[in-house]
């Protein structure tokens, strides 16, 4: 830490923290920010009116206000997710399982895909011991969905940090598994890493690493679950643009993207 | 819940390791009531100066395990570039991505929730055999290793090996 009472005239180096202290100060600050986020927002929020979004932007901000209006004509409400770097996985996981509460046919299909996924991960060289642990927890939640627990119970599951993070880890593993299985294709989109495996070890499997298109394509393809992302950014007109992943599929999950963050939308 | 989950996973690993031990180390708890604190005994890898040694180390797991990595500290004296003089082990997989103050290369493997006690100790054993010279935690040991491998480095390591044998 820099000394608060350093006298004027002292060299600048002295007043500034050294390299290591500086890094530590940044890490401590990041921890504080994470803690603050955790205190002020739930992992998955309650239903909220989309009108509340318009308060977050200036009234004169025609692009955003226009987009919110457009969004309100297409969706009923939304749920916020915590901005902790895991929001895409958590939003996707919750929203899809919530939908499966009312769709037994798709649930049957999904259960089969999810059950098989463990062997796929182990065959790729992930350690069986830990994969099994995450897989079992994931399947327990899928079974709860099969028993048609109330939405509140599913919400409680996703709001329980430990359990919720376990589900995120498993979705991250599935994403990594799909990328590695289709390495020949995905290697073309990876910059600054020597291999798909290395990319996964740094950008997919670790917690709190944010998701990009490539992650979304991989996870939605791996589970064969269509996701529509509505983009609310500075680009273009006063209408929100959307993109469906994987391309051309019927969306079952609807997400709102604002730069760096995903929330859940409801029709 | 998170703490219970971590405790459960650690108990499972403990059971697994005592049922089917892995060559090269043994593991147990420091205190049977606390599953978050482990004691491991690492056998110095063959064909290295550490051969013949039995090095005791402690692992301290956070409540957020496996989202966050444990800390590891050698209790036995050990002279190695990647082990601090107070015994703390500095390898990249025990650090989360983004913790860059250790100066690891970007490509080095970081902590992932799928790591186990076994995979951690295996990395430590391979570190003993093959130090990472780029980000030494013990600068003096790194210097010995680089400049006087068969002299000073060997002498200090063998001294630790003898000491570790006496205390077993």
Q: Can you offer a commentary on this structure?
A:
The complex is a heterodimer of chains A (267) and B (168). Chain A is α+β, with helices and mostly antiparallel strands and 267 residues long. Chain A has one domain (49-68, 77-266): Up-down Bundle (3 helical TM bundles of succinate and fumarate reductases), CATH 1.20.1300. Chain A has helices at 12-15, 19-40, 51-54, 62-74, 87-100, 104-123, 128-146, 151-159, 161-181, 183-186, 196-204, 213-223; strands at residues 44-49, 77-81, 226-231, 241-245, 251-258, 261-266. A six-stranded mixed β-sheet of chain A has the order 1-2-6-5-3-4. In chain A, strand 5 (251-258) and strand 6 (261-266) form a beta hairpin. In chain A, helix 9 packs antiparallel against helix 11 (196-204) and helix 9 packs across helix 12 (213-223). The longest helix of chain A has 22 residues, at 19-40. The model of chain A is unreliable at 1-15 (pLDDT under 50). With 168 residues, chain B is of the alpha+beta class. Chain B has a single domain (2-166), classed as Ubiquitin Conjugating Enzyme (Roll). Chain B is 35% helix and 14% strand. Chain B has four helices and four strands. Chain B has helices spanning 2-19, 117-129, 139-147, 149-166; strands spanning 25-29, 37-43, 54-60, 71-74. In chain B, helix 3 crosses helix 4 (149-166). Classes of the chains: A alpha+beta (267), B alpha+beta (168).
How far the N terminus sits from the C terminus of chain A, by CA atoms, comes to: 51 Å
Q: Name the poorly predicted regions of chain B.
A: none
Q: What's the mean pLDDT score of chain A?
A: 88
User: pLDDT below 50 for ≥5 consecutive residues: which ranges of chain A?
Assistant: 1-15
Strand content of chain B: 5-15%
Q: What series of H and E elements makes up the topology of chain B?
A: HEEEEHHH
CATH homologous superfamily of chain A - what is it? Answer: Peptidase C65 Otubain, subdomain 2
Output the CATH topology of chain B: Ubiquitin Conjugating Enzyme
Structure annotation, total helices of chain B: 4
């Amino acid at each position: 830490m820099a000394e608060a009472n350093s006298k004027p005239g002292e060299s600048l180096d002295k007043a500034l923290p050294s390299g290591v202290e500086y890094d530590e100060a940044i890490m401590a600050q990041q921890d504080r920010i994470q803690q603050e986020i955790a205190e002020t927002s739930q992992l998955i929020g309650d239903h909220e009116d989309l009108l509340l979004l318009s308060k977050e932007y200036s009234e004169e901000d025609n692009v955003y206000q226009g987009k919110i209006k457009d969004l309100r004509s297409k969706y009923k409400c939304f749920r916020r997710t915590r901005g902790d770097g895991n929001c895409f996985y958590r939003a996707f996981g919750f929203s899809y399982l919530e939908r499966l509460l009312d769709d037994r046919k798709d649930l049957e299909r999904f259960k089969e895909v999810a059950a098989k996924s463990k062997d796929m991960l182990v065959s790729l060289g992930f350690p069986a011991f830990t994969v099994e642990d995450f897989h079992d927890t994931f399947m327990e939640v899928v079974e709860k969905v099969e028993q048609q627990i109330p939405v509140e119970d599913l919400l409680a599951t996703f709001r329980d940090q430990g359990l919720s993070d376990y589900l995120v880890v498993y979705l991250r593993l599935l994403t990594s598994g799909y990328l590695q299985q289709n390495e020949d294709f995905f290697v073309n989109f990876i910059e600054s890493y020597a291999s798909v495996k290395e990319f996964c070890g740094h950008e997919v499997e670790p917690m709190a690493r944010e998701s990009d298109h490539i992650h979304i394509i991989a996870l939605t393809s791996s589970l064969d679950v269509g996701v529509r992302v509505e983009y609310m950014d500075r680009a273009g007109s006063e209408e929100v643009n959307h993109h469906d992943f994987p391309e051309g599929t019927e969306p079952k999950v609807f997400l709102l993207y604002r730069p760096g963050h995903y929330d859940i939308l409801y029709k | 819940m998170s703490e219970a989950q971590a405790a459960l996973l650690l108990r499972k690993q403990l059971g697994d390791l005592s049922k089917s031990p892995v060559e090269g180390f043994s593991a147990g708890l420091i205190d049977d009531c606390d599953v978050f604190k482990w004691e491991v005994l690492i056998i110095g890898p063959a064909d290295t100066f550490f051969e013949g040694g039995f090095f005791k180390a402690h692992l301290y797991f956070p409540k957020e395990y496996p989202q966050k990595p444990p800390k590891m500290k050698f209790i036995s004296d050990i002279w190695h570039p990647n082990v601090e003089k107070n015994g703390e082990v500095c390898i990249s997989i025990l650090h989360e991505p983004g913790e860059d103050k250790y100066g690891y290369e970007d490509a080095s493997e970081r902590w992932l929730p799928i790591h186990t006690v076994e995979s951690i100790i295996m990395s430590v054993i391979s570190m003993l055999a093959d130090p990472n010279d780029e980000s030494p935690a013990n600068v003096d040991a790194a210097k010995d290793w680089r400049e006087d491998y068969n002299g000073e480095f060997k002498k200090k390591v063998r001294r630790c090996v003898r000491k570790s044998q006496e205390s077993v």
